[in-house]
Amino acid sequence: MKINIYKNQREIEKTYEIDNYDIMYGTVEDVLSMFDDIDDFSDNMQIFKVIQKNRQKLNDLLKDIFPDLTDDELRRIKLKELVPVFMGLFTYVQTSFGTEKN
Description:
Shape: globular
Strand order of the largest sheet: 1-2
Radius of gyration: 14 Å
Helix content: 40-55%
Strand content: 5-15%
Number of strands: 2
Order of helices and strands: EEHHHHH
Number of helices: 5
Largest sheet: 2 strands, antiparallel
Distance between the termini: 27 Å
Structural class: mainly alpha
């Protein structure tokens, strides 16, 4: 997984990259509780509401995945780059624990 920190709209200041992430059970619980609020993963409004409701958990998760990431840098990540990170994490949890919603 990787995440870019932007200096401005076009210029990347820094990139954090990890090869793997050992997910903690508490994180799994948090991710699974977010699934409860999403009936349709193609509904962007539902996903936005879940992100808004769980913003601090998501920030903490990003700082856990990328340990050197600061609060200031969190504000300089493009949203479009966060989606693949979270979807990859959600998919990992679903497939690892057989919790796929039908």
